[in-house]
């Protein structure tokens, strides 16, 4: 966590230079401003850094997480040594910021399994105090002012963090675009298709409609088969997203931690497949469990200028 461009370079450039000296492939995913700031500090060595990961953007968080996982898996299979620097995106919406931080927590296990060192960048001027407090909870180490790693006293076990931060559900509009109640499994197919048609009509890009239908189907399937019937699907649109929410009266106690780690059916790990699919294709997923039941909400980006997201980590104030 840094407070200026000079502070950023003091903390991060030693880590980058150590990687270059060791022959690691140093990969930086950051805004143009941050790239320029780090590049200026590196001088001629900037040409040895790989700026960006092809196909990985922060426009949609689930695919971003999956893209990074696939990239690291390929590097590990090829026997390459990789050292990463990644800048978190500027997120004004607290709920979406929470969704991003949940992926950060899960990264300790899921992406950390490949054994590559990784530094995440957070500009203190661009994030609230509550977000920065959670940043310390999801990262086991912090870089001190001269680039030395120090243990984070606030670090929490990833599952503990996920249970404590399951999500912040969106307010439900007085009039939603679709409201379905299901009592039997034979209603799933028709409900899934109706949800997909509703999402398409409300501005979901055509290439994302199949993913939305898949997620809606998994949400309904989980509720009908594992929750308590009846379950209820509601769909509405905001300026930036199409939102689908499914409620049932079951407990759903383990859902906040489900879907971040790849299921392993070959080892008999069959649970969590539905939530895995949902988290991989949606932008943000929020869960709420209470005495009244379980609610799961998935958000997908709409088309149009209001839905556009900046390049990975795009933000000013770095130079």
UniProtKB/TrEMBL annotation:
Annotated ranges, domain Histidine kinase/HSP90-like ATPase: 207-304
Keywords (A to Z) from UniProt: Kinase, Serine/threonine-protein kinase, Transferase
Transmembrane regions: none
Source organism (scientific name): Pseudonocardia broussonetiae
Record-given protein name: Sensor histidine kinase
Stored SUPFAM superfamilies: ATPase domain of HSP90 chaperone/DNA topoisomerase II/histidine kinase (SSF55874)
InterPro entries found in the cross-reference section: Anti-sigma-factor_SerPK, HATPase_C_sf, HATPase_dom, MEDS_domain
Pfam families: HATPase_c_2, MEDS
Keyword flag Transmembrane helix: no
